[in-house]
Amino acid sequence: MGGLCWQTPDALLSTPPLLADKLVSQPYQDLSLGDYSLLWKAHKKLTRSALLLGIRNSMEPLVEKLTQEFCERMRAQAGTPVAIQKEFSFLTCSVICCLTFGDKEDTLVHAFHDCVQDLMKSWEHWSIQVLDIVPFLRFFPNPGLRRLKQALENRDRIVEKQLKQHKDSMVAGQWRDMTDYMLQGMGKPRAEKGHGRLLEGHVHMSVVDLFIGGTETTATTLSWAVAFLLHHPEIQQRLQEELDCELGPGDSGSRVPLKDPSRLPLLTATIAEVLRLRPVVPLALPHRTTRHSSILGYDIPEGTVVIPNLQGAHLDDTVWEQPHEFRPDRFLVPGASPRVLAFGCGARVCLGEPLARLELFVVLARLLHAFTLLPPTGPLPSLRPRSHRGINLTMQPFQVRLQPRGAVAPGPSQHQ
Question: Domain of 373: which CATH number?
Answer without folding.
Answer: 1.10.630.10
